[in-house]
Specification:
By secondary structure, the protein is α+β, with helices and mostly antiparallel strands. It has a single domain, classed as Ribosomal protein L28/L24 (Ribosomal Protein L24e, Chain: T, Roll). The chain has a two-stranded antiparallel ribbon with strand order 1-2. The radius of gyration is 17 Å and the shape is elongated. 21% of the residues are buried. GO terms for molecular function: structural constituent of ribosome.
């Protein structure tokens, strides 16, 4: 399982620890990932996703999983999230 957010694409970054003597050693910056269960109103189901805390705040800010996915670009979504987005678009197209 990769350390990558399924909704925002946020992943591991690398950098340096810098000591007081200005010595540099390599380190990794890990994203703050949480295993959460989000509910899709359009599909009427729950989905378990591994998302960053930042993406979780964005989902809440946008009014839920469905509006967030519809607004998000396809490039930053994981394959599972992209399938969810397509399913939500299909349900909304039938309802309209």
């Amino acid at each position: 399982m990769s350390r990558r957010c399924e909704l925002s694409g946020k992943a591991v970054m690398s950098g340096n620890n810098v000591s007081h003597a200005n010595r540099k050693t390599r380190r990794r910056f890990l994203p703050n990932l949480c295993q959460v269960t989000l509910i899709s109103d359009a599909l009427g189901r729950q989905f378990s996703l591994r998302v960053s805390a930042h993406a979780l705040r964005s989902v809440e800010h946008n009014g839920g999983l469905d509006p967030f996915l519809l607004k998000a670009s396809d490039a930053q979504l994981s394959s599972r999230a992209l399938k969810l987005k397509r399913a939500i678009e299909k349900v909304q197209a039938v309802a309209a």
